[in-house]
Amino acid sequence: MPISSTHLLFIISIIPVAVFAQSCLLLSGSFACPAFQQYYIDVEGLRAKNAWLSNATDVPSFDQALTQYIDSTDYYRIFWYDKLSCNAPSASQVVPYARYAITKLCTELVQDSQFSLPCSFQHNMNPPPLCRETCDAYVDSLNLTSSMGEPCVANMATIQRNQTLSDQRSDCGSWPGLNGTTDQGCIRGSLNEPSNCHGSFICGEIGNIFMDGFRMKK
Questions:
Q1: What is the pLDDT along the chain (218 residues), one digit of tens a residue?
Q2: For 140, phi and psi rounded to 5 degrees?
Q3: Following DSSP, what letter does each residue of 29-48 receive, concatenated?
Q4: What is the top-level taxon of the source organism (predicted)?
Q5: Helices 101-110 and 132-145 sit at what angle, rounded to 10 degrees?
């Protein structure tokens, strides 16, 4: 029996929803983003902006991709070297870790308005923003870590570094996903990374309790 125009329009209208739903990944059981377990990300959509997600297909592979990326030479070159004027990357590069960097990255993925937020909305979930104080603590840690010792030596006066810190601080106040309050039920960095950095702004390299725990879980 021929398909009527009404039926054809209905079929066409539901195709994007079906395809869209297939790319929504619930972060239940995530070790990297435990404070975001009830929310979704659109892995396929986010790959266009985050090449490191290319092999992420489920929560374990997402956790592995995220933690490997933030401890990678590529991340060091893109962020610490290009934006914070730290030393040129080497083959055996030790990647510094700013307090709550993983939590901030989790937030940026979950709060992505183009891809991930529609996934959560589709499942009647509205992810709260990151607490503003957590975002500020991250920038404070960036400031201290990029101005003390290896691999960021004597770079405090660089224009690029100062601009990056200014931009990061501005994001904490202006981007809705990063400037949450307790009244909004905002997500605290200490909830997502309870053991990371032991409450210190100077975290050193990422090979700490958080990463040791991740390796044990794999």
A1: 444 444 444 433 444 443 344 489 999 999 999 999 999 999 999 999 999 999 999 999 999 999 999 989 999 999 998 898 888 888 777 888 888 999 999 999 999 999 999 999 999 999 999 999 999 999 998 888 888 766 776 556 688 888 999 999 999 999 999 999 999 899 999 999 987 765 555 565 543 434 443 333 33
A2: -60, -40
A3: T-SSSGGGTTSEEEHHHHTT
A4: Eukaryota
A5: 130
